[in-house]
Amino acid sequence: MGNLLYLIAVVLVIFWLIGFIGYNAGGIIHILLVVAVIAILLRVIEGRKPL
Q1: Could you read off the pLDDT of 20-43 as tens digits, one per residue?
Q2: Is residue 50 part of a domain?
Q3: How many structural domains is the chain composed of?
């Protein structure tokens, strides 16, 4: 479950970077970034390495 959560976080950060650089998708991109950051924080709180 943790690996899946981390994978989702990485994918969302990549999509955010693509949207931030290339497209104007409004607030949805920033919501995705927040979800990715929360997923990484949950992984850190659980005691696992974030990367």
Answers
A1: 666 665 667 677 778 888 888 888
A2: no
A3: 1
